[in-house]
Write a structure and sequence with these properties.
Protein name (chains A, B): Prephenate dehydrogenase/arogenate dehydrogenase family protein
Oligomer: homodimer
InterPro entries (chains A, B): 6-PGluconate_DH-like_C_sf, NAD(P)-bd_dom_sf, PDH_C, PDH_N, Preph/Arog_dehydrog, Prephen_DH
Largest interface: A-B, 102 and 102 residues
Number of domains of chain A: 2
CATH architecture of the largest domain in chain A: 3-Layer(aba) Sandwich
Number of helices of chain A: 10
Pathway (chains A, B): Amino-acid biosynthesis
Radius of gyration of chain A: 21 Å
Pfam families (chains A, B): PDH_C, PDH_N
Keywords (chains A, B): Oxidoreductase
Distance between the termini of chain A: 24 Å
Strand order of the largest sheet of chain A: 3-2-1-4-5-6-7-8-9
CATH class of the largest domain in chain A: Alpha Beta
Largest sheet of chain A: 9 strands, mixed
């Protein structure tokens, strides 16, 4: 079938390459940047470049744009998509996008599904596109009660064929809560970590832990500030949570209270160990506190 | 020459293996755990097991114990070391150890040098000892005005022969300030990060950034709480710094202030990029704020 990819940056470009590499589908690429289109054609990442009016040919369209552009492109070109075809966005937040796109496409017969391929690199643009970023990664589907089950199934199978390691389904709201913790918070903390003035004296002192903690400090500030603001309550909760915990270690340290400091560290160590063995059984008192639930598709 | 290693845990055991692997020196091992001694002998990590009274044979002794045990062992066995021989500790904080050991050894003619091989794993004990952990790592030497230059030179050359990538010299105080930022803070932040209740719902949502941020949450709480308390002012400074920065992002997010949020992220991104290209030139206004200086030995 014909699959369109709208926006061939790091993610869209990688998706083009992955579809070409792993399937026999025809890939049609759309990008406003003519150099990107030329590069994608030259390296065989796409079979053909298209304009929005040609989206009507496609069985599946992936919108691989920034959140605001995803919504504005869909609104502007809503009549270009074929009724019955599948449209999926790949934004890193889902509730805001699903809220905007689902009511837009429902009356047109287009089958919209929110997705989030959990992959990325510290670089942007087609030049860094690489289908290997999806190998073993999670592909999140965020259907609602109105999502076509067949469209969901089609995307599930496609993601599997592209090499994703886990296909997970979640509500848009639960996705956003989890992603605030596992991805957005990581980017804020990493970006905050690097700001100590001691950075300018760290030459020779930066071991693996420092490099790990600061790797994703190198981020696209325009994209991430947009994503953060689209997920405000969940990210605020995570920020308040980690700030609160950091203040506990700080207080124990300031008090010279070794017993408390040791217990605080032990608690974190045990949680990490539980998460490593996949035994996501929370300590008894937290069983009711979980913020989000998901199930993994078979 | 004969080199003694006192304490054959992860670090001491790895050091034994590295010396055997890279040099022709004789390695004598001392540990209170007979199983560890037996294992070290069986795998050829040491040539011979010794008791403290045999330390007198050795040209160099590495004390590879926890900070408090390093000091108590040295005090208890100060008469066992040969005058003129070199004794080096490998503790992750230096001022407190140097302050205790230097006046202890100076009157005996033993040439004490504080060192810090910046390597480690998320596991403890001889079972995980691996000489490869030192490959390319930094070896920090923290001499004082009273340190014998020749002893410093001997340890420098030995570290180089063991495969360390950089040999850095620093004052004990400056070492402790840098290590508070590049290592201790990483362990606290990682340990705090894992404590969100959202952890129990992250299945399928944990991409590389989450794994990076939480890797060192798995730590030895006894050792790290001791190290943190021995470096209180520097670690408090780093904790206050990151908490202050996190509160800036938090405020911008709560206010829905995208311009400020973008600028905060951009500032972090630029600092990370500068640190990556090794251009440790701070922004103009911070040039006087640096907390520590080191030089790299040729």
């Amino acid at each position: 079938m014909k699959i369109a990819v709208v926006g061939m940056g790091l993610m869209g470009g990688s998706l083009c390459k992955a579809i070409k590499h792993h399937t026999n589908h025809t890939v049609l690429g759309l990008d406003t940047d003519s150099h990107t289109v030329a590069r994608a054609l030259a390296c065989g990442a796409i079979d053909r470049a298209i304009v929005p009016e040609e989206l009507v040919e496609c069985a599946i369209t992936f919108l691989c744009l920034f959140p605001d552009t995803t919504i504005s492109f869909a609104r502007e070109h809503v009549d270009c998509f074929k009724s019955g075809s599948i449209v999926a966005d790949i934004c890193g937040v889902k509730q805001a996008i699903v809220d905007a796109l689902e009511p837009l496409f429902l009356p047109t017969g287009v089958r919209y599904v929110g997705t989030h391929p959990m992959a990325g690199r510290e670089f942007s643009g087609f030049a860094y596109a690489d289908d290997r970023i999806f190998q073993g990664a999670s592909f999140i589907l965020t259907p609602t009660a109105k999502t076509c089950p067949l469209a969901l199934h089609t995307l599930h199978d496609l993601a599997e064929s592209l090499g994703f390691g886990r296909i997970v389904t979640s509500t848009p709201a639960d996705h956003d809560k989890s992603i605030a913790f596992t991805s957005q918070l990581a980017h804020v903390v990493s970006n905050a970590y690097i700001k100590s003035p001691t950075l300018w004296n760290e030459s020779g002192f930066s071991a693996g832990s420092f490099l790990d903690l600061t790797r994703v400090a190198k981020l696209n500030e325009e994209m991430w500030s947009t994503l953060f603001l689209l997920n405000r309550p969940a990210l605020l909760f995570e920020l308040d949570t980690i700030i609160g915990h950091l203040q506990e270690y700080r207080a124990a340290l300031a008090d010279g209270d070794k017993d408390t400091l040791r217990e605080l560290l032990k608690d974190g160590r045990i949680r990490k160990e539980l998460s490593l063995i996949g035994d996501a059984t929370p300590p008894e008192e937290e069983k009711e506190d979980g913020l989000a639930t998901h199930k993994q598709l078979d």
